[in-house]
Amino acid sequence: MAAPALAKRPCSNPSSSASCREAKRLRAAAPAPMERHDEAAAAADAATTTSQSQSQPLLPGLPDHLAQLCLSTLPPRLMHAVCRPWRRLLYALSFPPFLSLYALLEDAGNGGASFAAYDPIAARWDCLPAPPMPSPPPTLCHPSFLSRRLPLQSVAAAGQLVLVAGSTQSLHPALCRPLVFDPAAAPGPRWQVGPRVPLAPRRWCAAGAARGRVFVAGGVGAGYDLAVARSGATWDPATPSAPWEPLPPLRDGRFSRDAAEAVCSGGKVCMVNLRGSGAKEGAVFDLVAGRWEDMPPGMLAGWKGPAAASPDSGDTIFVVDEERGALNAYDWGSDRWTTVAEAGRLKGAAEMAAGGGRVCVVADGGAKVVVVDVTPKGRMRGSTTPAPPRMWEVEAPAGRRVVSLHVLPRMTRPE
């Protein structure tokens, strides 16, 4: 996934204008990608330059805090290629972060779960520390459900990765409390434990993010309970000590048969009660009015696969028609879906995420992630037809499959 350009920031000191101009000159004349060195050469280079780079100013003649303001206008990929001090700055807690792809992975050999983040600037996967899983831990599949995935449900909210629900091998709820991974925590990225889920722990619920808050509705506890199946709640992961806030109850308990996305768009949270392209029912929660509504018929008819939305794409809901391999976008005004892109490699899509003008789709059984650039494009030369969106692929880590994914700020790194 390519990281979007960082928002430009003006320098706040006139004396720094020359250095700002130098930074802009570098942006316009980006060097070729850095050459690869073998491990021995890289280690020797690091040993001889570490002490120098630690004392080297970011921009000569300018205090580092002002240099950071100038460098924040540069593309992250350029900063990564220029020098070690700039590269370290990219991952500093004080520097504006670029976006990365976070994935729940399944080991192809033993079915175990792990987490990793794909850094699009360095083009590599970095392992996340293991979360403090309860005992027994959640499982990603169950032998009694040969064709059904029982996912560990996760949400991206307030710049953090939140595990909200899952099933144990014995089909009991796996998480009494959410587990929260903060990629920008000081002194380094870490997991925290949130407050108890209201009423009872659950599985097979609708889960998503709404205006920076975790949103959960429906689901099943240790056994079916209509009160749990109709319940919903929101929680702010940026304030771990804050309690869950209840939502008005659902009209019925239909959202308790499958794990589903809850997608926020236009001030409303939208969800369907079944995954895939089969017949399903939908519901919409109006965040302003605080009430449940019926899903518009056009939206429900076109919801034929995994769905995601991103605030930086105008809250547009994207759905992949898993049978056609078509990426479709929803328009509230016309209650219609329009095709953004169609490709054979999108067929069978199981999960997706959106952010930074990109839609990322789990494809080929989790062996890869297909990234689609959905930022507005110009028209093809000599034609009134819009230029097709760019697509590229990110391979899953060796020996693992991507189960679910999210777009979040990159992880900080220690100095």
From TrEMBL:
Residues 1-58 are annotated as: Disordered. Residues 41-56 have a biased composition (Low complexity). It comes from the Eukaryota. This is F-box domain-containing protein.
